[in-house]
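hey m, so remember when u said the tokens were messed up on ur end? i reran from scratch. heres the input so u can diff it against urs
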Amino acid sequence: MPHPELTLEKRIDAELCGLDATMCVYADDLRGNVVCRGADEPFESASTIKIYVLGCLFAKAAAGTAALDEVLTYEKRHFVDGSGMIRALGEGAKLRALDAATLMIICSDNIATNLLIDYLGLADINAYIRGIGCENTTLHRMLRSDNWGEPLGTITPRDMGLFFARLAKGELVGSAEMRAIFRQQHYNTMLAGQLPAYYTDAEESGADGELIYTASKSGSMDACRNDGGLVHTPYGDYVLVMMCKDFANKLEVSDHPAMVYGGRVSRMLFDQYLALEGRFLL
């Protein structure tokens, strides 16, 4: 048995003791061991809410009430600044729903998100969230440049972790297709930034790209820095979600304290999982 002062939760607390902010953690090795540190604390979702928009698209497509190849048109009412590339195409640009969804995830495109919220419907997205068991998560609105101070969504680390656990088990409609999209994520500094680059940059190192990889979604606003998803290893997948708030530094920088401390927690759990060959605890 681990020493009572050296449990994973205590070690996470020790890792985060110098962070002048609130960081909450949810981790699941998918073999019965769950590690929680404020896992039910509500957070501003920022772009992590987009995982549910993607899930809703696949679910509605399977039900015949939406189509992955439906052509969506970028109109003036969809405009929002922030991350993404569609705004460079200009109004009138047309994209398949699946292409918009891919951009919404891999480069967190905000206009793509608005296109999909408009197409799927806010009420249906929230019904999907409830339907998969995420009772403490809500998408409040479309994105607008003039209301960044208002909540976009509410989420908890546990709810985000539940989504990815169900994805890993193949329990969500489109699980395999969504995993492939999440693997292309461009912004995963907190989750993957301190994992061994030899594995996470397989294209450069020549390592087997299927050996270790992440499939994830991050989110960042003045109120939060969030990151979470699956870490795949030869021993299987595990889920890790980290959410941070109450920090002073609002700058979007890769060495933000949330990224640094979150990266340390991620590496600690990664090392533990590998050392125990697919578990967080014996």
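this time it looks ok to me. The domain at 1-41+160-282 is CATH 3.30.450 (Beta-Lactamase). if urs says something different then somethings off w ur setup not the seq
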